[in-house]
Design brief:
Oligomer: single chain
Number of helices: 5
Shape: globular
Helix content: 40-55%
Strand order of the largest sheet: 1-6-5-2-4-3
CATH topology: Leucine Aminopeptidase, subunit E, domain 1
Pfam family, one: Macro
InterPro entries: Macro_dom, Macro_dom-like
Order of helices and strands: EEHHEEHEHEH
Largest sheet: 6 strands, mixed
Length: 177
């Protein structure tokens, strides 16, 4: 069974086999977590992303999918890039967000990663409400079959940490009843 843990802080300073990047579809860096990972990880990550864009992902990485690159200067072996959906009140995109977590775990399994650090995908600039992002993340990771031994949610601030902590408490109670 996969252990789920929480850390409040900067995902670029976490030690894990794989760090998940809440990427944009271009794979060429951006703001938020994406920009931070590219800056701290150095040019090797961007070089790998450019190779991906020159090959199979010429039009970019589709929403809900995941792909791995080197981790460059990060304290990890790999970065798993996934593109979360933008939140919409008019359209339920929950399945696309859940797909980000499942696809990232599938890539982690293919790589042989045993520890994976996730940010709150889509909960930043893409506008997903934090409580719902936490619900989808925790429920999806808990229900996905994986060889990953530990999933660590690395949450930037106290509000997001508390949303994930509340969801973990709720799902722990639900699984005991």
């Amino acid at each position: 069974m996969t252990a789920l843990t929480l850390t409040q802080g900067d995902i670029t300073r976490v030690s894990a086999d794989a760090i998940v990047n809440a990427a944009n579809s271009s794979l060429l860096g951006g703001g938020g977590v994406d920009g931070a990972i590219h800056r701290r990880g150095g040019p090797a990550i961007l070089a790998d992303c450019r190779r991906l864009r020159a090959g199979h992902y010429g039009k970019g990485l589709p929403t809900g999918q995941a792909v791995a690159t080197t981790a460059g200067e990060l304290d990890a072996r790999w970065v798993i890039h996934t593109v979360g959906p933008r939140y919409s009140q008019q359209e339920d995109r929950s399945e696309l967000l859940a797909s980000c977590y499942r696809a990232s775990l599938r890539v982690a399994d293919e790589l042989g990663a045993r520890t994976v650090a996730f940010p709150a995908v889509s909960a930043g600039i893409y506008g997903w409400p934090m409580d719902d992002a936490a619900r989808i993340a925790v429920e999806t990771v808990r229900s996905t079959r994986t060889a990953v031994e530990e999933v660590r949610f690395v949450l930037f601030d106290e509000r997001s940490h508390e949303a994930f902590a509340a969801r973990l408490r709720t799902t722990s109670r639900d699984s005991r009843t």
